[in-house]
Amino acid sequence: MSDQDLVVEDSTVDTLMARHPATMAVFNAFGVDTCCGAHSSVREASARDGVDKAALVAALRRAITEPR
Description:
This protein is mostly helical. It is 63% helix and 0% strand. Helix 1 (3-10) packs across helix 5 (53-65) and helix 3 (23-30) runs antiparallel to helix 5 (53-65). The longest helix is centred in the last third of the chain and has 13 residues, at 53-65.
């Protein structure tokens, strides 16, 4: 796991969506609660919502780094 993956895991859902709007589609595709659970870290949200954390982080990293 890279340091960048840890940064994504420790960021809150709402922070990532505010800084990188493309991540909203990723959270929605994985079924992560982006409303009431938006103040949770990606790590907490993936555990809470029963999401594969590694797959979610990889998809978020792609959304953040790929050109739009």
